[in-house]
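This is your field. Have a critical look at the following sequence-structure pair:

***
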Amino acid sequence: MNPPQAVRIDDELARFIGGEVSISVGSCDAARLPNLTRGFGCRVCDGHERIRIFVSRAQSRAVLADLATNRRIAVVFTLPATHRTVQFKGTDARVLSLADGDLECVRRYREGFVAHLAALGFGADTVAHMVGCPDDELAAIEFTPDAAFTQTPGPRAGQPLRQP
């Protein structure tokens, strides 16, 4: 059996998922029961073929345990102002320590996401708390997306993303 082909992420999509989006990171356990955690930023790496997401270890214990067992991941990125949503799935997720530049990426994400939701009328302090955790608690999850879908509400929801 051939390994799944990586989904190439173009520049526009990389900017979108690396922007002021809500990030939900999903996994499933051996019984296929789902687990979910919030992502605190994203980077696209390795020639636009890998995604690196940041999570709180304390808030993500079940997801991290699932990934250690089966490496299967689904990540959803939604821009609250427009509800534009994309989903990526992968089967090779790895949990890593932060690398150079990751902490700055998380800080930029937090500032941008708080500002985005504050402009929509949400309390900045509440949003900052929602995407906050001590820096030394952060972990990176990196994976190669082998499937990508548009999930924006409407007639195209669930359709595969068009490849560049």
In short: The CA atoms of residues 149 and 161 lie 5 Å apart. The two ends are 25 Å apart (CA to CA).
